[in-house]
Write a structure and sequence with these properties.
Length: 171
């Protein structure tokens, strides 16, 4: 990460894995130490989730006491915070030297919650359909006739109407 490009505070998110060899009782203390490092080198902590035990998608190797150890599982946690690029460099150095941190990633993000809802708004799908006229869709060099017919049909509201429209499209 190039920390010299910008100097104004930005919002970052740290995702980290802790080694699975630590006991569950130690997790709050270790994640508290990571949070403390962030609080010391940033403006504010916006949100966080304490580490939970997960299976890793692939095996990760970490050198511990001059020996390579392989891990298939870890504790995963994250913290969203506002900080300066210089503070990020200090946080990265601390994470690299922490023997309980298996791996980590720091990304620039937004202050707002970026969770996706389970159901996408229907207005977006409707807007996408309106942007492309059915007559503009070309199949094998010709305008798709089924799409032309569908564009002249009224909006379907019942199952019977849906069956009629489908029947017209497949015939």
């Amino acid at each position: 990460m190039n920390h010299k490009e910008h100097t104004e505070p930005r919002v970052y998110e740290l995702g980290y894995h802790l080694v699975p060899t630590v006991s569950e009782e130690q997790i709050p203390g270790i994640s508290g130490a990571v949070r403390g490092m962030i609080e010391k080198n940033s403006k504010e902590v916006i949100s966080e989730e304490l580490p939970v035990f997960i299976d890793l998608a692939y095996q990760v190797i970490k050198t511990v006491e001059h020996k390579n150890k392989r891990f298939d599982e870890a504790y995963f946690g994250w913290i969203k915070f506002e900080g300066s690029p210089e503070g990020i460099a200090v946080i990265e150095e601390g994470l690299k030297n922490n023997e309980n941190v298996l791996r980590y990633i720091i990304v620039k993000t937004l202050r707002e919650s970026t969770y996706l809802s389970k159901k996408f708004p229907s207005s977006n799908a409707k807007n996408r359909e309106e942007n492309i006229a059915p007559e503009e869709v070309v199949v094998a060099g010709e305008i798709a006739p089924a799409l032309k017919a569908a564009s002249s049909e009224p909006e379907v509201t019942t199952d019977e109407e849906l069956d009629k429209v489908i029947g017209k499209l497949v015939s």
